[in-house]
Structures are given as structure tokens and as C-alpha cells.
Amino acid sequence: MQKNIKIEVIGPEPSCVRCQAVKRTVEKVAEKLGKQGISVHVEKKNILSKETVERYGLL
């Protein structure tokens, strides 16, 4: 059975240096997990978008 994981990196647009570093790190981990049969989808979310605020509240 294949596992699927969704990871959301939430931050401002344009991305700050820390957000960029987090996204790169998560993508590296996702690549390693992919080799083990675990599918990881990495998505960047704008912290001020209506969708993000409605889902998580104001961060």
C-alpha cells in the first residue's frame, strides 16, 4: 500500500529566506521518502490568502 503525504509550507509572498529554506528542506525529504515508496506533495501557501486564513485562521 502506497502512502501519500501532503505538506503545506505557509509563508508570505514573495517568500522570505526562511520560507525558501524550509521548502527546499521539505523537498529534499520528500525526494528521500519517494525512494521508499512514500508519495509526498509539497505545496506553498500564501499566509495572507483567503483560503489559508479561512482554513487555519490568521497566523
How would you characterize the overall build of this protein?
There is one protein chain. The protein has 59 residues and is α+β, with helices and mostly antiparallel strands. The chain has one domain (3-56). The chain contains two helices and two strands; from the N terminus they run E-H-E-H. The protein has helices spanning 17-35, 50-56, and strands spanning 3-11, 38-46. Strands 1-2 form a two-stranded parallel sheet. It is flat, with a radius of gyration of 13 Å. The N and C termini lie far apart (35 Å). The mean pLDDT is 94.
Helix content: 40-55%
Radius of gyration: 13 Å
Report the sheet with the most strands, covering strand number, pairing sense and barrel closure. Answer: 2 strands, parallel
Count of alpha and pi helical runs: 2
Q: State the shape.
A: flat
Strand content: 25-35%
- For the record, the count of structural domains works out to 1
Regions with little confidence, pLDDT below 50 for 5+ residues: none
Helix and strand element order: EHEH
N-to-C CA distance? 35 Å
Mean pLDDT: 94
Strand order of the largest sheet: 1-2
Q: Helix- and strand-based class?
A: alpha+beta
Strand tally, please? Answer: 2
